[in-house]
Automatic annotation (TrEMBL):
It holds the Pfam family AzlC. It is a multi-pass membrane protein. It comes from Acinetobacter apis. It is found in: Cell membrane. This is 4-azaleucine resistance probable transporter AzlC. The lineage of its organism: Bacteria, Pseudomonadati, Pseudomonadota, Gammaproteobacteria, Moraxellales.
Length: 248
């Protein structure tokens, strides 16, 4: 009986490691697109006076690229901490929605697994894992969502982001403004690929379009950082309204 139990546990561990490696493998195309953006962020942080120790602390403790770019735009010397905290909360508010969408997949897990999963969640790992879960939508949510696959994606993106932002801080002064080389186009390209992987049909993409239009308007007419939460909220409201129409 004990031998059978040990064999089963070893099989689970083997499967988890395989899924973890598959997550790392699946993240490689995304990493190639994010690396240039990480270098730009590191270079900009260096130009704002952050040291090679402070840059990985910034990107490792606040693992959210959008808010990191936003606070660097508002960075002063000395920094206005309350303003930076507010901007960080504002830009990262989309994570409230993203985390809520994972409740049905994670609610059966203990907090010691849920909290790290949510801390390391980013746009790419969230989108790729949900797209993977959709392939098994005939199963119960707890069985459809592959936590090991998700962890592999989070692990590779987190390590890459922290390392290459630090590298950007080191080489930034040597190359000047990396954005002039076109590196800043890599991040939008990554999100276009993620959207393509989640595409179902035109009708389901209507909230995307509403979110895009709202975000563009906010980017043009509102202060820096507002376009992200405004786009997210408009997309959510549109999706909720469409769900109500479908139910009728």
């Amino acid at each position: 009986m004990s031998f059978s139990k040990n064999t089963t546990e070893m099989q689970y561990q083997t499967d988890d490691m395989y899924d973890f490696k598959q997550g790392i493998k699946a993240s490689i195309p995304v990493l190639l697109g994010i690396i240039p953006f990480a270098l730009i962020l590191g270079a900009q942080a260096s130009q704002k006076g952050l040291s090679l120790l402070e840059i990985p602390l910034l990107t490792g403790l606040n693992f959210a690229g959008g808010s990191e770019f936003a606070i660097l735009q508002a960075w002063t010397n000395p920094p206005q901490l309350m303003i930076l905290v507010f901007i960080t909360f504002l830009v990262n508010s989309r994570h409230l929605v993203m985390g809520a969408s994972l409740v049905s997949y994670l609610k059966h897990l203990p907090n010691k697994k849920v909290y790290p999963a949510l801390f390391f969640m980013c746009d790419e790992s969230w989108a790729m894992s949900l797209a993977d879960a959709q392939k098994r939508k005939h199963l119960e949510p707890k069985d459809a969502f592959n936590l090991s696959f998700y962890s592999g994606i989070c692990f590779s993106i987190y390590i890459m982001w922290v390392v290459f932002t630090a590298l950007g801080g080191a080489i930034g002064p040597l190359f000047g403004d990396l954005a002039r080389l076109g590196f800043d186009m890599a991040f939008p390209a990554v999100f276009l690929v993620l959207l393509r992987s989640m595409w179902c049909n035109v009708h389901d993409a209507i909230p995307w379009g509403a979110s895009l239009i709202a975000a563009i308007g906010a980017y043009l007419y509102f202060p820096s950082g507002w376009h992200i939460p405004i786009g997210a909220v408009v997309g959510m409201i549109t999706a909720v309204l469409m769900t109500g129409d479908d139910d009728e």
